[in-house]
Amino acid sequence: MPPSPEDVARLVNALFTVASGLDRARRNIPDAAALAVLQIIGTVDRDEPGRGVRPSELAQVLGVHRSAITHHLHTLTGAGHVSLATDPNDRRSSIVSLTASGRAETTRLAAQGMARFASFVADWTPAEVNDLARLLEKFERSKTSAAQKSHTQKSRTERENNP
Fold it and tell me: What is the pTM of this model?
């Protein structure tokens, strides 16, 4: 039996309340956009050490225009967290890499974030934390599947209407 409209409404309300709270908290972080750039570079550095990131890649991941990244890179370079080098494959572009200071900062930020989330669930049991994580992961898979089905149906309808 599928969930009732009331069940779905409760889920939607809870998700929007949590998302809104996270968004407000993120906006209260000084220079949050520059920190988001730093975290993306840190993820690439962790997953593919030495690769570096083009500013255009950062803009694409963050969903902003490349010019918006320039300011954040100047801030991070000034703080000593990233270095810029000319891309050897395209001398018009740069490669952004973490410095030792940037690695330390991403580690510090990750620990700070984990401590903050740990405080949210401090009075939960490990089973409750794992249940929520499992259900959120299931929700994400269901959301992705529904979006794919919708896209497939839309494409099929367009083909049928425009032979």
Answer: 0.70
